[in-house]
Amino acid sequence: MRIARFSIDGTVGFGVVVPAPEGEPGGAAAGAVSRPTAGLALDIIKGHPFGDFDRSGKLVPMDQVRLLPPVLPSKVVAVGRNYAEHARELGHEVPQVPVVFFKPSTSVIGPGDEIVYPGFSTEVHHEAELAVVIGRLCKDVPRERAAEVILGYTCANDITARDIQRSEDQWARAKGFDSSCPLGPWVETELDPSDLAMICTVNGEQRQLGRTSEMVRDVADLIVHITAAMTLLPGDVILTGTPAGVGPLHVGDEVAVSIEGIGTLTNKVATRD
Asked: One Pfam family from the UniProt entry (predicted)?
């Protein structure tokens, strides 16, 4: 099941992504960003996806809504250097224990939203990642129960000010600036994350290509490690690391992260007004 968060006429809600009925009109909403959503609709749900909910049967063509970040996390817990080739391309060894850092909730944007190039950096990079969306409050989760706390998975882009990351011991500015955490386009709840293809393109040119099977530590291991230290809340997000091939973004670029079984997250890079 794919669950999207959306806005239409100022109202925010959740819906299940379904095929649009044949012959359904699909005019784009004013100001909507063009997305590969032709032939899709949202079955608006009653309630929210972190508990029991019913599908209303009221279908809204996808092109008539604005897709929002699929969740609003209280925190984004990110894992660095979880792909050996990526660690090596930046001149690092694979760490003995996972490198964990935070991206604030204010860094989160959705599909079609602009990545705003920060004025304090001259070297901003893309990092395609599989994101885990937590579905229930959890702490000290044993490996064999990790799947029980997961709502689903979405695409993420861990946008990084690489020059700032190199010059500062803490990564708060380098990875936590506004718009540095695109998420979307929706949450896929029925997915085996163990071996998924992941591609990142910039202006249609392939930059990153990897598989989640290349992770040093898998999703369950990361959940065990993180929840040993902190409580995760429904809607919190874990970023699982990026494969090799990270590289620069410039104002005007369009960057897309595609993950097998989920879909594609697309954003453009803009300058601050």
From this structure: Rv2993c-like_N
* Alpha carbons 103 and 76: distance in angstroms, whole number: 5
Q: Which residues of 233-255 are buried (b: 16+ CB within 10 A; e: fewer)?
A: ebbbbbbbbbbbbbeebeeebeb
Q: Is a pLDDT exceeding 70 seen at residue 123? A: yes
Question: Cis bond leading into 185, ω under 30°?
Answer: yes
| Architecture category of domain 76-271 in CATH | Alpha-Beta Complex (3.90)
> For residues 164-178, b (16+ Cβ closer than 10 Å) or e, as one string?
bbeeeeebebbbbbe
Q: What is the pTM of this model?
A: 0.93
How would residue 27 be classed by pLDDT, with cut points 50, 70 and 90? very low
DSSP assignments along 78-115, one per residue = EEES-BHHHHHHTT-PPPSS-EEEEE-GGGEE-TT-EE
Strands of the 247-249 sheet, one edge to the other: 160-161, 124-126, 247-249
Is residue 22's pLDDT more than 60? yes
DSSP states of 218-261 as a string?
-HHHHHHHHHTT--B-TT-EEE----S--EEE-TT-EEEEEETT
Residue 252 has pLDDT above 70, yes or no: yes
DSSP 53: -
Strand partners, 126: 247
Straight-line distance from the first to the last Cα atom of the chain, in angstroms, rounded to the nearest whole number: 38
- CB neighbours of 169 closer than 8 A, spacing ≥ 6? none
Domain ranges of the chain: 2-67, 76-271
User: In this prediction, what percent of the chain has a pLDDT beyond 90?
Assistant: 86
